[in-house]
Design a protein that fits this description.
single chain, 204 residues, alpha/beta, Helicase, Ruva Protein, domain 3, Dna Topoisomerase Vi A Subunit, Chain: A, domain 2, two-stranded antiparallel ribbon, 7 strands, 11% strand, binds zinc ion
């Protein structure tokens, strides 16, 4: 018996949906097939609302011009809120880290998303990140404390040291306390750990 090359399991439309879903983080081809089958079976309850929501987000999602958070307006809800404390900025690598901090509900200031870390190996310098913009914000927003909430990776810590050098004597510099595991990304920490690390933050 000769094995067939292309199993005709489903139509090409469904196959291409499976291929796209398989590109999502955490999903491989097997999970994508299961997810698509589930969506088709729950067409009214899930598939249609999901595709509507995706179209909405595709049309409206953008980066906040001030902090780099992702939202649906030029200035995000956090930057626009009058309830957030002024004078303190929490610097994070990625939007996922900002969202992790927000989930912990312990920080009431504003954020600055760098968009990555410095990396000599990959040719990422300060200009490739939003470090110049951070320097501008410290002055224009009258910032007195910058909390460096960067991941405990080598590149994360190199970036923290670079920023600390730039802002030395301008602001109080703090970093999240020990408790953030080495190589551990903020997004993977539970709210209690983030809360404890922020409360016990250390002056650099
Ligand atoms: Zn913002």
């Amino acid at each position: 018996m000769v094995a067939r090359k292309d199993p005709d399991m489903s139509s090409s439309e469904i196959d291409s949906l499976i291929d796209l879903m398989a590109k999502l983080p955490g999903l491989g081809p097997r999970s994508a097939r299961r997810a698509v089958l589930h969506l088709i079976r729950k067409r009214a309850l899930l598939l249609t609302p999901l595709s509507d929501a995706m179209l909405q987000v595709a049309a409206t999602a953008r980066e906040c011009l001030n902090c780099g958070n992702v939202g649906t307006s030029d200035i995000c809800d956090i930057c626009a809120s009058e309830k957030r404390a002024t004078g303190v900025l929490c610097v994070v690598e990625d939007v996922a880290d900002l969202w992790a901090m927000e989930r912990a509900q312990v920080f009431d200031g504003r954020y600055h998303v760098l968009g990555g870390t410095l990396s000599a190996l990959e040719g990422v310098g300060p200009e490739e990140l939003s470090i110049p913009r951070l320097m501008d914000r410290v002055v224009s927003e009258g910032i007195s404390e910058v909390i460096l909430a960067l991941n405990a990776t080598v590149d994360g810590q190199t970036t923290a040291h670079y920023i600390a050098d730039q802002l030395e004597e301008q602001v109080r510099l703090t970093s999240l306390a020990q408790g953030v595991p080495v190589g551990g990304e903020l997004d993977y920490l539970d709210e209690g750990t983030i809360s404890a690390a922020l409360t016990a933050r250390k002056t650099l």
